[in-house]
Write a structure and sequence with these properties.
The N and C termini lie far apart (about 100 Å). The protein is mainly alpha-helical and about 130 residues long. It folds into 2 domains: about 1-95, Cytochrome C biogenesis protein (Helicase, Ruva Protein, domain 3); about 95-125. The chain is elongated and about 90 Å long. Helix content is about 70%, strand content about 0%.
């Protein structure tokens, strides 16, 4: 009887400890997600500094917004799309791949192809 009572208390104690540790791990993962995402975002008031590294008021506001969005269960892409719709694509260090900036992503390859064509033309001409 005493052993059964002790084991039930032990079970309750383990359950409480696990629930607190899971909560702490979840907080750490949100902090890690916020850090990772804010390192990819540009501070609008600083000169090419990430939001994570900046101490400007704008950066602190964006950090709070990102944290609340993660707590709401939003993904990185959804948060980026929200911030781009609000502040423009300049807020991203790495612009999104979409039809608006497809030429920006493809231009180096187009330039390489034209350079190779011009170079082969010049070599064959000699």
């Amino acid at each position: 009887m005493i052993l059964c009572h002790f084991s039930s208390r032990l079970f309750v104690l383990i359950f409480i400890l696990l629930s607190f540790s899971i909560n702490a791990v979840a907080k750490e993962t949100i902090d890690d997600k916020v850090k990772k995402l804010t390192l990819e975002l540009r501070c609008m008031t600083c000169q090419n500094q990430s939001i994570y590294d900046s101490d400007a008021e704008f950066s602190n506001d964006i950090k709070k917004i990102v944290r609340t969005k993660f707590e709401e269960g939003k993904s990185n892409r959804e948060i980026k799309e929200f911030l781009v719709s609000r502040y423009g694509e300049y807020i991203l260090f790495k612009p999104l791949l979409n039809y608006k900036n497809l030429f920006l992503w493809a231009f180096p390859f187009i330039l390489l192809v034209f350079s190779l064509i011009f170079l082969t033309y010049r070599i064959k001409k000699r």
